[in-house]
Amino acid sequence: MIDPHLLQSAIQKHQSGQFAEAEGIYREILQANPDDPDANHYLGLIAYQFGKFEPAGELIGKALAHRPDYLEAHINLGNVFQKQNLYAKAVDCFKTALALNRDHVDIHTNMGVALKELGQVDEAILSFKNAIRLNPGSLAAHFNLANAYKSQDQTDNAMKSYNSALAIEPRFIDAHINLGSVYEKTGNLEAAKASYLSALKLDETSAEAHCNLAITDLALGELDTAHESAIRATELNPQFAEAFRVTALIYKERGELNAAVANLEKAIAIHPDFADAFNSLGLVLSEQDKPELAEEKFRSAVSLAPEFAEAHSNLANVYRHTEQSDHALTHYQKAIQLKPDFADAHNNFGSLQKELGDLSGALSSYEHAAALKTGFADACNNLGHTQLLMGNFRDGWENYQWRWKLEGVAKRQRRYDQAQWDGGDFSGKTLFVHPEQGLGDFIQFVRYLPLVKARGGQVILEVPAALRHLYEHMPGVDVLVQPHEPALAFDCHVSLLDLPYLFKTDLSTIPKPDYCPQTPSELLDKWTQRLEVYEGLKAGLVWAGNPDHKNDKRRSMAPDLLTPLTSIKEISLFSLQVGRPGEANSSFGDRVIDLAPELTNFVETAAVMKNLDLVISVDSSPVHLAGALERPVWNLLPFMPDWRWLMNRADSPWYPSMTLFRQPAPGDWCSVVERVCLELSELIAEKSR
Known about the structure:
The chain is built from 34 helices and eleven strands. The chain is an alpha/beta fold and 689 residues long.
């Protein structure tokens, strides 16, 4: 018979941390009685405490085989299964334990943890609440309940439970950190920062708190302090992959993309299965204009984490920008399926739908994105562009106002102490009208100035330097100024592109371009003499717009695509393509006369256009100039054009002399050029009659 004092001695040594001595006594007992439940249980518990989970499970299981109602053994076997990630088995153990004692707080708490890991969060919450009912002062129960609420985005409940845990133990660092992450999720960044600082006050060496503080400071735009915190986190824990990822995000925001890549590669080296790091690396590579490498990283992210909605959306973005529409469609839909409230995915999916010609689908996606995220400027602006494209000017102009909330546009918004004009009467006052975007936009919308003048007093118009001489006698303008000239006194101001909104323009009330940009008579005579020696129909060619325009790859074409025009007889072709020296000669030889070297300003170009029979151009400032000059102009458009050219029509309500030639499918310039050749042949035949 085993001396009961021997077991008690072993338990005392065990509890005092004398594990080797305790283990020796347990084994001595088992040598005498291999089936002793207590010795097997406690020996298994020592194995558990030293991370030897498999032998721990075997020993505790042997104890239960000989004493099925052994409560502590059921609890500890459940704990062993949890450490082995065998959560279903753990739950079974805890359920058996609860059948023996339903008022045991730790059983309810531990079972809640296992249920949460199994994704049964509602059941886990119930377990944690049962534990708190039994013991309102249970720190573990309050903390784990908060974690469960956090996992379900029940932010109010999570904050309440974390605060309950902190009321029990104010020095509980993990509760401060997790509470901060909930504040961060709700957008309360200052409260999040305060929580992380509270954690660091308790333990300055908490790498996790430094890392989270860096994330918050990054969101607050405090890049220097964010960088300090992130670097400190990596110093405290050189194996902390997330800290390196956050450091990379800060470098990305600072524009130091190579440093961002280096830190993300460190994160992945530490944690090769780190899907977030692959996703972040894809974003940096996209910004470096390396779409193939970005695609590879996003594919790695979704392979590692198939439920990673953001990575699917980012992969779709790469596919969209590389015109792999089918793949983009698949991954946008996957992202939305995984995360139905993912506003950015709905917005980007809308842009893909628009590019593919599904305008009603695009409208629906943009509207859904805007409804999901209050103040979502990009979605509202995209909605406005699409509404304008479809001829819905009433709603389109209003949503177009959201452009001022876009980061890139907001940076160039004019900010004056004087009020923005609201379109009302300004008699006795001075209004300053300033340009906003490109030269083509100025040419298109300057027609509103006579309407502006009719509503009040003095009008000052800022004219881009390149267009100054064309608009010296613009009606409705009292004073012309150029950019960077000393400011004149004014009472209110307005952007040129806000005028259609203020005048509530619809398709039937678009002002006529009554003012024809002025060209000196001597310049007209010069070009008349210069061009009259050429026979046949005289046509000017422009095949490329501003290379910095975000849609340039779709709206510009390779010059070689226009080569079929050179086979048409009784036509003289002239290159008006500036900014690409030698391209006309290398593409067309002497079949196209290159006038670009002589087109040193827009006045010169206007004088040439007035001496041509036709201008053929892609969508860029020359088509606007030709339209304003009332010269016949053929505007070659991509499949999905800019909003101002509308859809399903060959004419433009903005320029009566313009004809629109549209791609029948994305990227199909050949069909456009084929139609141009047919129309040219008919025009030449008609002219020769």
